[in-house]
Structure formats: C-alpha cells, structure tokens
Write a structure and sequence with these properties.
- There is one protein chain.
- The protein is built from seven helices and 22 strands.
- It is an alpha+beta fold and about 400 residues long.
- It folds into four domains: about 5-90, no CATH class; about 95-105 and about 325-405, Beta Barrel (conserved putative lor/sdh protein from methanococcus maripaludis s2 fold), CATH 2.40.420; about 130-235, Helix hairpin bin (Helix Hairpins, Orthogonal Bundle), CATH 1.10.287; about 240-325, Beta Barrel (Elongation Factor Tu (Ef-tu), domain 3), CATH 2.40.30.
- Strand 17 (about 340-350) and strand 18 (about 350-355) form a beta hairpin.
- The two termini are about 65 Å apart.
C-alpha cells in the first residue's frame, strides 16, 4: 500500500475515535472548546439534546446568553457534587458489634487419673510346701483371717505333738523337784527352766503348724487364684490378690498453677469410660509435697467412694475439679487485631471508635479472654474493621440511627 493511502487510513481512524469519544463523554465538548476547536465542528459531531446544550457561537450576545445557563448549571452541579462528596466523607461507618462478657480462667481442672483399690494385698505363703487344699475362688468376698489355702502339714503336726509330750515331762519333773526336799535349789531351778523351754518349743511347733494355712490379711475381693492343688510353693509365690475396693484411690497430675489452690478435702468428680454418663463423687485424699521438675505437675490422690462395687482397680478416670478462678473480659476472636505495638480491639464510645489495647490471656474456641479496661456490656467491633479509624463516627448495624450520627 502506498504511503498516502496509509496516511489517509490513519486519519480516518483517528477521526472516528475522536468522534466516538466526543459522542460518549459529555464533558468532551467543553474540553475541545478550551483547546480551540470551533463550535460548528463540535456541533456537527455531538447531537443536540436536552441533556447537553449546543455549543455557543464564537461571538454575539446570543452566544453569551447561551453560555450563561451552561455556566450556572455547571456551578450548581459542582456545588451539588461538592455537597455530596462532603456528606460521603463524613458519613458514619457501618459496623457490627458484640457486647463484652466476663469469663473465668483457671476455674476448672480436668485430668486423667488411674484408680487403685484402697487396700490391695498379694497373698504369699509364710512357709514352703505343697498345696493340699484351695478354699477360695476368683471374685469371692473374703474376711480378714479366713483360710484361703492349706499346705501339707504332717511334719509340723508331729513336731507339735512331740513338743506337747516334752512339755508334759518337763512339767512333771519340775513339780516333783518342788515337792521333794532332797533336791538342791539348783536342781529345782534347772527343772523350771526346762519346763519353760518346753513351753516355748510347743509354741514354736504350733506356730509352724498354723503357717501351713494361707489366710487373708484383709477384707476384700479375691482375684484369680494363681496356684493349683499339688503345686510346690515358696514364700515368694503369689497365691492370690485381694482388693478392698469399698473406695477407689485415683492418682492424677495437676498443672503447677493449681499447686496452691488444691487442698485436702476438696470435692472432685470422677467418671470412667466403663461407666459412661455416670459421675462419682469424691474428695482429695493426699497431695504430694513437691512439683515434678520434668513435667511441672504435682501428684494428687483422690478418694472416690464405691458403694455399688462398680469400679475396679486399674480403671482410667477423668477427674474434674472446680475453683473460683480469675475473671477477665471475654471478646469475640474476630475482634482482636494486631499492629506494631501489640493486640487491640475497637471499642465503641459515644458512637465513635476507640482503639483499646488488650493482653490475650486465654484463647477459647468461642471467645478470647483479655486483660483490658473493658466492662461487661461494652460494645466491641467484630465486622467492618477495615474501615474503622480512631475517633471516627460509626453506626451499629441493626441499631436505630441517633440524631448525632444523622448530623454527622
């Protein structure tokens, strides 16, 4: 294509773009007039409508008269735009708020503990021998002194009988020496000593015979019997375990911050996964005298009554305790904001936003406990935080607009 054709095409495109701009943009006519473009040219491009008056001619009274309304209209529109802009700049920011509540911290302790019987004894024989008889079954309730099993006792029975015979002989000899005057005082004294030795020998034989019986040292419930008839046992053999579970002792570990708050006798509540939905009451039985330096916890022992015998030693318990705790303002988690100086919230005072510094004490799923100069019921901004400024007027969503906010 020749150069003159290219230039002509460019001019046509520019003219079309200019005409489109003048047609679509209402203020284009004024801009072209200021640039010195004749009014006839502009009038040829822009159609005359009631919204846009025709450009004034270059000179003449009529041109001045036509230009005057346009100027007045422009001044009035500018004033209206200025008024509208000022009203938009001072308008109160719409926000959503929530009232401050008062929450407590360190008011409840929850821990996992392990239970044990109030008394638990592993019964072992006091002598070695062969089991001849078992007189207890698993789960049986036994009393203190009840015979649980017996060992072979033939040898011990013979030793007891021999001791009885020796005692009878010593007693007869001692009595003869006392009645007869022909014996010296030394012979009488030796006879009395022999009698006392025979009594001690008989007591030893009877004790060895009694030790062939394996008896219950406490009242309780028998566990699984670990021996059978005919087994050879020693003093280290576990025969059966007895548990006194009229009450269960639950050991649990409390954090260090509760060390000075827990005292003996305080009530506790315990629940077990074996008894879902059932809560057992108890009290603190004992407190350890030191904090574990590794876990920073303290061992606590609670006594839980077991009147229905539904709890067992070795069960896991969820132990709970309640305390007075410390009270702090509770705010919505969305209200807490951060900047270079730390955390803060936007508080509403007299329909204006005020930045209030807070210290986060504890985060909960539904609220954040903070240390701040906030009272119960104070309004805190939770939505619309991006538009809130220090001291700026705000309007609470859902609240009636006050006269002061309307004036602002």
């Amino acid at each position: 294509m020749r150069i003159w054709k290219q230039l002509l095409l460019c001019l046509v495109v520019l003219a079309g773009a200019l005409a489109l701009w003048v047609y679509l943009v209402p203020s284009a006519g004024g801009t072209l007039t200021k640039m010195g473009v004749p009014g006839e040219v502009i009038a040829a491009v822009i159609p005359r409508t009631s919204a846009q008056p025709a450009p004034a001619p270059a000179g003449g009274a009529s041109g001045n008269a036509a230009a005057r309304p346009q100027g007045e209209g422009g001044a009035q529109g500018a004033a209206q735009r200025g008024a509208g802009g000022g009203q938009g700049g001072n308008r109160a920011t719409l926000v959503v708020t929530q009232p401050v509540a008062i929450g407590t911290v360190n008011d409840r302790l929850s821990a996992i503990g392990s239970g044990q019987a109030i008394q638990s004894v592993v019964v072992m024989p006091q002598a070695s021998g062969t089991v001849n008889e078992i007189m207890v079954t698993s789960g049986q309730k036994v009393t203190k002194g009840q015979v649980l099993a017996r060992l072979d006792d033939e040898e011990q029975t013979i030793e007891r009988d021999k001791a009885r015979v020796a005692l009878a002989s010593a007693q007869e000899k001692s009595a003869s020496y006392k009645n007869l005057q022909s014996f010296s005082r030394l012979d009488v004294f030796d006879a009395q000593i022999a009698e006392q030795a025979a009594k001690l020998a008989l007591s030893t034989a009877e004790l060895n015979l009694r030790r062939r019986d394996i008896v219950a040292p406490i009242d309780g419930i028998a566990g699984i019997v670990a021996v059978n008839i005919g087994d050879n046992v020693t003093t280290q053999t576990n025969v059966v375990t007895l548990d006194d579970r009229t009450a269960i002792l639950v050991d649990f570990w409390a954090p260090e911050r509760f060390a000075v708050a827990i005292e003996p006798g305080q009530p506790v509540e315990a629940s077990s996964i074996a008894r879902p939905g059932q809560v057992f009451s108890g009290k603190v039985e004992a407190i350890d005298n030191r904090i574990d330096p590794a876990s920073r916890t303290m061992r606590i022992r609670a006594r839980v009554e077991n009147p229905g015998d539904v709890l067992r030693a070795g069960m896991a318990f969820n132990v709970g305790m309640r305390f007075a705790g410390e009270r702090y303002p509770a705010v919505d988690p969305l209200a807490v904001q951060w900047d270079g100086e730390g955390s803060y919230v936007w508080q509403i005072r007299d329909n204006k936003s005020v930045k209030t510094r807070v210290r986060v004490v504890q985060r909960n799923p539904d609220a954040v406990l903070v240390g701040a100069e906030l009272k119960d019921g104070d309004r805190i901004v939770t939505e619309g935080l991006q538009r809130v400024r220090e001291g700026a007027p705000v309007r609470i969503s859902g609240a009636p607009e006050t006269a002061e906010v309307a004036r602002q």
